[in-house]
Every structure is written in C-alpha cells, then in structure tokens.
Amino acid sequence: MEVAGLIVAAGRGRRLGDDLPKQYQSLGSGTVLGQAIRAMLAHPGVTRLLVVIHPGDRTLYKRTVADIADPRLTPPVTGAGTRSGSVLRGLEALAADPPAQVLIHDAARPFLAPAVIDAVLAALAQADGAVPALPVVDALWRGEDGRAIAPVPRAGLWRAQTPQGFRFEAILAAHRAHGADAAADDAEVACAAGLDVNLVPGDESGFKITDAADLARARKREQAMDVRTGQGFDVHAFGPGDAVTLCGVQVPHDRGLAGHSDADVAMHAITDAIFGALAEGDIGTWFPPSDPAWKGAASEIFLRKAVERAGARGFRITHIDCTLICERPKIGPHAEAMRAAIARITGIAMERVSVKATTSERLGFTGREEGIAALATATLVQA
Ligand code: MG
Description:
The protein has helices at 32-41, 58-64, 83-94, 114-123, 168-178, 186-192, 212-225, 265-278, 283-286, 300-312, 335-346, 364-367, and strands at residues 3-9, 26-27, 30-31, 48-53, 77-78, 101-106, 129-135, 140-144, 147-152, 158-160, 164-167, 197-201, 227-239, 243-246, 249-252, 256-257, 315-325, 353-358, 371-382. By secondary structure, the chain is of the alpha/beta class. The longest helix is centred in the middle third of the chain and has 14 residues, at 212-225.
C-alpha cells in the first residue's frame, strides 16, 4: 500500500523571538523540521515523503535535509498563504502519482511516536480519516478580562495532533472543495466535506512547538536522548623489555609491548571507544602511524585528543569500562592506579572508570602470551 507523508512547513511562525521560522530552529544536531522528517521516515510504512515549504525558505530547507539521504524524500513544493492552501498544493503534487493514503503532519511537531502512525493507518481500514488525539484532562473555563466566567464541560473534548491520515482521493477532493480558506486542521476540512473521521490515541510526545517554552522542552528531550556508546579494541604483541605500560601505568614484566607509540594497548582501546561514540574515526585517523612524530609517544596524547573532541562536540564522558585480556602480568594489583590515571586524563570521577582483566584460559595468542588485547566501551552524553 502506497502511503505518502506530507509535512506542512510553509508557515512563518516567528513567536520564538528571532527571525528564524520555528521549523528551522535548531534541535539536536539538526532542526525542528529535520527531526520531523527523520521521524516520519523512521516508519517503514511511509513509502514517500513530500515537504511543503515557504518559497523564501529554499536555502534553509536545503541545509535542513543536507544529511538526509533517504530516497523516499522527494523534492519539496512551495506552499500558499494559509495552511490549508499549502496542504492543497502538497496534495496536488502527490496527485500526479496518487498514493492510496496520506499522512499530513505539522513541521512544528518534531517527535512522532511510531505507534501513533500505526494507529492512524489501522483506522483507515474503516474510515476516510483518522486523527490522533488526547482527552482534555484539565478543567476548562471561559474567561473574560482575567475573570473566570463559567466552566465548560470537557466531556467529549479532545486535543487533536498530527499526523492526520486520510484516504488520498477523499482528502484531495475535500481540500479542493475547501480551497485556501483557513481551517484549524485537515480533520476540519474532511468533516466539512462529509468524510467520516475516527479519533485514535495520540501521544504526549507529539506536542506542537508554538513558543520558546515548547522549544526548550523539545531541546531538553532531544538532549536527554543523545546518549552514545562507543567501543574500542586493540592488540599489541610482546617484545623485548622489562615493563609494559597499561592505562598509563608502568607494570614491571619480563617483556615489553611492541608498537609505534608507547604501545599502551588499554589506553588505545579507550581512546578508540571515545572516537567511536563521536563517530570520528579512530586513533589512526587523528595520529597516522606513518607520521614519525608519534614514535614512542605517550598514549596520553591520543586520549587527551579524544576527550578534547568530545568536549568540542558538546559531549560529556560519563563512563569508561576497559577489559584487558592476558595471562601475565597480573593486572589486579595495578587496577586502582590505572583507574586513577584514566580518571585524571579524562577529567571524570574515578567511580566512573572501570578497569578489569581476564585471561583467555591459555587459548589463542593471549593464552600463548604472545601479546595483550584490550576492549573498551565509553558512554558519552550531550552536555
Ligand atoms: Mg594500538
């Protein structure tokens, strides 16, 4: 079944105190509209997506979708002076290759619960249209000049959200009949045309951004969700020497570790875990092994760079867990010193740094004592 998404982003809403329309305000690593587009494309039932934009916003739109490579997102069309006029233009554009159903969504609602789309699409099996809605739970009052005049019964009242779903031909005909006159939403246009529209359960996450407080709420929500985990893995072979450096701590041993830098296999794994969480490559990306500058270098330099990159990207490192795999030397007696060293270099509390070790039961290269392997994970949260 062809289901088109149609996002209406042609409004000029500028109640947020600067010149930027609200759908282009920053949110997470993109914009409010970008988030809405991603949320719609995240639903596998949506087979194509069209956005209606203001003719003056082409550059803003281009920037917003620059990192969205999904082929289901088709080139935008420009809207009209009213919301219903803009929806009509979008529907007319889709009509060239009509889908069976259409989900019409407000650009200012960046969060979209997949279950809401499921409910809307399921309802279209029985009805021409479906509107996600939440019951009104607060008492309603009619007021005048700041005075309470009379309560309004709230029984049977619902707060409508989007996306509102419709059988395509039915809503196209309804909007053509309605024209560009103002309407609160598409359900109003549909009901005016005599279509049957069902109410399905909405979700509080589908709130609309209308003022600065809403935008702050959206940003907080987005931030709370940007928690990243990166992994790192490294191996160094034993070579001649009388000590190995692990997590910045010199541990006496009858051999050393071979490598271009100080061969601190554990610190390399931790560094790569942080670069992994940032999706910024690995140690080799930042410190090419071909560069003689890093010969014999203390691996602290690499870890400090990863920490610096995390900070520059607005991330806080909240946890590091490192596992060393070797038969010898024994790690246990040095684990606390290693935790302290990593905590010092990364600038985080020692209780957020874990260093532990295991043997590989004499199996494999670590079991044969040919080298040491290290695994690490790092958790980063947008600060
Ligand atoms: Mg290494």
